[in-house]
Structure formats: C-alpha cells, structure tokens
Design goal:
single chain; mainly alpha; 2 strands; 7 helices; two-stranded antiparallel ribbon; 140 residues
Amino acid sequence: MKIGEAARRLGVEVHVLRHWDDVDVVVPGRSSSGHREYTEEHIYRLRILQACQRVGMSLSEVRIILTRSEAGRTEVIERRLRWIRAQRAQLEEAEQFLSHVVDCKHDLLTRCAHCAKYATTNTRSGYKAELVNNLRANII
C-alpha cells in the first residue's frame, strides 16, 4: 500500500512515516519508481512502534526492541518496565493523597498531619513535595 493509505490506517501524518523510515525504525519496501510501499507486516510493526511511544519509549529504543536479536534489547525493556513501575507507584501515592485531601477537614493542608507526612516523605523524584506545592499554589 502507498504511504498515504498507511498513514490513514495508523492515524498519523505522512511526514511521520517518512521520518520513521529516515531514522531506520520501520523501513518500507520501494516500488520500481522509488515510492514507499507498506505491507501488512509494516503496519503491524508501526502499530507496535506507536504502542512503545505511548509508554514513553524513544525511537532509538523502539529500533532496538523491534528485533529480538538486537543487542541491548532486554536492558531497554527492563529499564522501561522499571520506569513504568515507578510511575505507577507515584500515581498510586498521588491518588491516596488526593483521596485524603477531598475529605480533609483542615482549613489549610499544611495543618493536616497526614498531608504534612505526605509532603515530607522523600522520593527519588521529589514528586510528593512538588504535588503539595502545586496544590498550595492552586488551592490555598
């Protein structure tokens, strides 16, 4: 299929497919006149590329994981899994905090022991303190 049809099926602009080809992530075949030709296999690989991007992977990471025999593939996948698990943990903590805030009886969040504990708990990214600061700026 031609690039326009492939782009429509994937919900992307044609220039995106050209870019993915130019950086050697998914390289379609070429017709005798030099036009890109996409097969169902290319569409499948491109959908996997899109799924990888949705979880925050870069094109260089996607290029590595698309081929099972690629050096460093397992490390890239394991690193992304660690990142996803850390994000999940941060989101669960944020959900617990905000669920508490909804029913918090204190006039100021800084007067609530539960909120203060959440704000002072040390995390690798400082996410909790940042969340409380944002809440203070927008709520208090």
